[in-house]
């Protein structure tokens, strides 16, 4: 219990520290600096300049820091084998720069990798008799619990991992320590930062026959949009790899992200967690075409950011894509409740991007904080999963080919 709680607290504090530092730097880059120069904070010119400069800065840092920020991010998932601890400072630095600079990636992958590396290294030094897999599970659970503000997310994600691994004892015996770490991480983050995923959308009135059809169609549409990103992933990676220079690839990637930001508007920048609350705060403030445009632009930005070399996670940007798509469906057909449309669209996109059923269902549910949508979400999972299962994943092997 004690090591699990300590690991969970430290994982949450590292996530919180990086997030706060990125927010402070974001204020400087996107408020103080453009105001001092007399340039619009989110003008097309400033978005293009800032994203290009962010790509150049991240590229130069990756070129000079020990370990070069770890492996190619297009080949990594949410929880991977521990990297050397010497890589962690550089990884955290480029993650902070990307988050502050407006790159369409979240903190989940690099923060999880950093916490896993540190927990594994310290655990092997101070408790060499404990299996190495334990420290990986504790760090992953603590980070995921802190990211989502609840240990349930950590338990659901790790249940998929642990269920596929042989081991002694009952399943809940193996999940016990990671659940304790996830609880410690979630409580630490909740007490210090009070995170909330609730989008405060209009309350759902309850399932109807027409809602069932809407749920199936919207979740399937989200899965198809996510699959477009998945199949574009290796193509974009080959383009940037052909440049044969990380600094050039990241600078060009930053330029493309700036152009996409100018096309889709400033809400399509950054990881997307704060931006979805802006969209949800006024679900009738944009047309169906504008919502669809933001969903497509954010999808393209996610693919570019994840393949040109930026370090970051894909869950939060994918949530933005789903929220935009769902609100677009509501704007197109007013009879579709916004809470149902958003949760089903997020479910479909996340199933395609993460290929993790539990975390997709959980994230879609917590965004609307309404248990009455759960039966329809479970029904919508079925056609969406049939669309994505067995397909290519948004992760590459060492040869640049999609995993399956």
From TrEMBL:
| Its membrane topology | Multi-pass membrane protein
Compartment(s) of residence? Membrane
- Note whether rRNA-binding occurs among the keywords: no
User: Where is the major localization of this protein?
Assistant: membrane
**Transport among keywords:** no
Q: Which domain of life is it from?
A: Bacteria
GO CC annotation: plasma membrane
Query: For this protein, what is any one GO molecular function term?
Result: chloride transmembrane transporter activity
Q: Enumerate the InterPro entries for this protein.
A: Cl-channel_core, ClC, ClC-type_chloride_channel
Protein name per its UniProtKB record: Ion channel protein
